[in-house]
Amino acid sequence: MIIFHLMEIIGALMTGRFLDSDNRIASDSSRRKRAISCLVAFVAINSTGNILAFTEEHAAKHSNDTAYDIANISVISPSLAFACWGFADAQIQVYCYWLMSGFFTSGSHHSRIVGWYKCIQSLGTAIGFYLIPASRLSEMSQLVISSLVFVIGVILSFSQLPTTCK
Question: Does the pLDDT of residue 166 top 60, yes or no?
């Protein structure tokens, strides 16, 4: 979890700097290109984490040994998955806030949309935590559902690219 949260910090800093680069003189096409680049990188990074997790879950399903020793090389793959997920989580959150800042510029509208975003995000987190125990939903089912939500979210994100400068 340390790796996940460390990568969230790094991901937020890098994504924010990338999205806000040259914001003073950004043209409509430049802003749109940065949005597309950010989403493509998000897809690649999150997909990498999902693929690593899938291979780990598949191997665990065929093995009785599911414990990891920090001194063993076998911790690299799940650690990389958590690193990818941490970076991608921060990346998509920063992207969403950046996008909202372009769509809603007045203070009251911006406050309402951020509140709505946080409400939906918290609902998703609550549902996710409810489904975490393997007694409720198997690990592989959790990964499949998470991946499905990821694909739907990416499709919806590409349908809401910025068209104008703020």
Answer: no
